[in-house]
Amino acid sequence: MTEPLPALTVEIDPRLLEILVCPVTHGPLTYDRDKGELVSRSANLAYPIRDGVPIMLPEEAREIAD
Q1: Phi and psi torsions of 31, nearest 5°
Q2: Rg (CA), the chain
Q3: Do 40 and 63 touch, CB atoms closer than 8 A?
Q4: Handedness of CA 55, 17, 15, 13 (dihedral sign)
Q5: Which H, E and C letters describe the chain, residue by residue?
Q6: Nearest-CA neighbor of 47 among 24, 13, 14?
Q7: Are strands 37-40 and 30-32 parallel, antiparallel or unpaired?
Q8: Which of 1, 5, 18, 45 is in Cβ range 3.0-4.6 Å of 61 for a Cys bridge?
Q9: What angle (nearest 5°) sits at the alpha carbon of residue 53, between those of residues 45 and 10?
Q10: Tens digits of per-residue pLDDT, 20-66?
């Protein structure tokens, strides 16, 4: 039996978080290190980070529960 692969941790520059906003609500984003996503609580969306690049497209975002 094989062991599961460890989750990849992506680091985001804090200065980037200061300037990025949700493209839907223009509100702030928070970084979820465990899932590698930028989260917009106001839009209930989580934007993926792929290869260190935030994908800020609403159609690529995952809906999150309240």
Answers
A1: -100, 125
A2: 13
A3: no
A4: negative
A5: CCCCCCCCCCCCCHHHHHHCCCCCCCCCCEEECCCCEEEECCCCEEEEEECCEECCCHHHCEECCC
A6: 24
A7: antiparallel
A8: 45
A9: 85
A10: 999 999 999 999 999 999 999 999 999 999 988 999 999 999 999 86
Tokens standing for residue 32: 């979820």
How far is Cα 8 from Cα 23, in angstroms, rounded to an integer?
25
Q: How far apart are CA 57 and CA 9, in angstroms?
A: 21
Hunting for tokens 């209930």 — which residue is that? 44
